[in-house]
């Protein structure tokens, strides 16, 4: 079969690889019908994720058709159309029993395209198939469901739910990439008074308006603190959501929150950020961090199936499955191409 294989920093190829086979009796082999590229894959290609070794097939998001199941698989059947989630769950460890699948101790967590071969391939082996895949509802396109493999649950769980977004809130989202936009989409479900999107790229702020932000701030030109002060009688945002992953944006998110508000960090940080306790100690704020668990996936599937969430809004570019090199080019140059999510689909 063909797959997108990582060959060390800066190197990747769409090349022939051995077909995956059932290795454990709880595995499924899934034929990939649609997959996508994540910002994390770009981090891997820069060499920022050393756990990913030369020869690894990338990708942690897919919609596909089950081709084979191990003898221990009880729920998933050959022929099922399933969502393959970025988080794999053993289903029985301490963390899985609490719904914290991202922290799985039994061999799950974020493993696809990380510590085992991933979904940017014609076929993928999915461990713990019963607890790591979701049956796709009928009548919803592959590309919509694909957005549930990572970005929608991430924005919703690590941003909106960790941030306790509530009706009437003023919510500030720092960073309007796919993750920030997913947080904006999720925040709208709670009828906030205002959603303020903050980004340095005007194209991303335009997208933020489409996704439901009613105020946009380019923080290269305008001071977000002044904008939020006007909206909140000087108090600051009820909830700030960090969706970039650099020290400056974490510090901005922490500075924009009102006393007794929430700061929900989603960004993956590669270096230390300053926690300004000299300002924060007196403010009663709650700061949360998190890797997505995907416990909200069943809820989000219902919202997509009933058209309350339009996940297709993320898809800006479409390619055939064997056109990965071009898809990476377009996704990697989002500033010029306007890419949010690119979808690669099997022909026919
Ligand atoms: N916690 C999790 O489980 C999880 C899961 C997936 C992704 N992530 C992380 O979420 C973050 C966002 O992901 P994405 O795919 O949307 O990334 P992205 O790079 O597409 O978007 C980031 C946005 O931030 C903007 N930005 C950059 N610097 C800024 C600044 N100083 N001020 C304001 N805006 C600025 C950029 O213009 C861009 O629009 C990344 O760090 C990613 O690794 C976390
Ligand atoms: Zn991802
Ligand atoms: Zn587990």
Q: Could you explain the architecture of this structure?
A:
- With 348 residues, the chain is an alpha/beta fold.
- It contains 13 helices and 15 strands.
- The strands form 3 sheets. Strands 3, 4, 5, 6, 7, 14 and 15 form a 7-stranded mixed beta sheet that branches. The protein has a 6-stranded parallel beta sheet with strand order 10-9-8-11-12-13, with helices on both faces. A two-stranded antiparallel sheet has the order 1-2.
- It is globular, with a radius of gyration of 20 Å.
- The relative contact order is 0.15.
- Bound molecules: nicotinamide-adenine-dinucleotide and zinc ion (ZN) (2 copies).
Write the layout of secondary structure elements.
Layout: E1 2-6, E2 12-16, E3 28-36, H1 39-46, E4 62-69, E5 81-84, H2 94-97, E6 123-126, H3 129-132, E7 133-135, H4 142-146, H5 151-161, E8 170-174, H6 178-188, E9 194-199, H7 202-211, E10 215-218, H8 224-231, E11 237-242, H9 247-256, E12 257-265, H10 277-280, E13 286-288, H11 297-305, E14 315-320, H12 324-332, H13 334-337, E15 341-345
The protein binds nicotinamide-adenine-dinucleotide (NAD) and zinc ion (2 copies).
């Amino acid at each position: 079969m063909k797959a997108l294989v990582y060959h060390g920093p800066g190197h990747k190829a769409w090349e022939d690889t051995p077909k995956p086979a059932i290795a454990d009796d709880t595995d499924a082999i899934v034929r990939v019908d649609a997959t996508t590229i994540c910002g994390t894959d770009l981090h891997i290609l820069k060499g920022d994720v050393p756990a990913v070794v030369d020869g690894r097939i990338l990708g942690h998001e897919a919609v596909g058709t089950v081709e084979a199941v191990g003898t221990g698989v009880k729920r998933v059947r050959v022929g099922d159309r399933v969502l393959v989630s970025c988080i794999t769950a053993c289903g029985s460890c301490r963390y899985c029993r609490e719904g914290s699948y991202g922290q799985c101790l039994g061999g799950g967590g974020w493993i696809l395209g990380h510590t085992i071969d991933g979904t940017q391939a014609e076929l993928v082996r999915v461990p713990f198939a019963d607890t790591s895949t979701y049956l796709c509802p009928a009548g919803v396109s592959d590309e919509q469901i694909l957005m549930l493999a990572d970005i929608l649950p991430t924005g919703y769980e690590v941003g909106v739910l960790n941030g306790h977004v509530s009706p009437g809130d003023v919510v500030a989202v720092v960073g309007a990439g796919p993750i920030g936009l997913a947080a904006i989409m999720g925040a709208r479900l709670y009828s906030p008074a205002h959603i303020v999107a903050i980004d340095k790229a005007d194209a991303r702020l335009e997208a933020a308006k489409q996704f439901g932000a009613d105020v946009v701030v380019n923080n290269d030109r305008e001071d977000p603190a002044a904008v939020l002060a006007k909206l909140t009688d000087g108090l600051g945002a009820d909830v700030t959501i960090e969706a970039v992953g650099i020290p400056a944006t974490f510090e901005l998110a922490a500075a924009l929150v009102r006393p007794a508000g929430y700061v929900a960090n989603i960004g993956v940080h590669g270096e230390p950020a300053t926690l300004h306790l000299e300002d924060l100690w007196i403010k009663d704020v709650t700061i949360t961090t998190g890797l997505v668990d995907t416990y909200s996936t069943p809820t989000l599937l219902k919202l997509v199936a009933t058209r309350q969430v339009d996940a297709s809004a993320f898809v800006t570019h479409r390619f055939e499955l064997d056109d990965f090199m071009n898809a990476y080019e377009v996704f990697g140059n989002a500033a010029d191409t306007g890419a949010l999510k690119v979808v690669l689909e099997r022909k026919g």
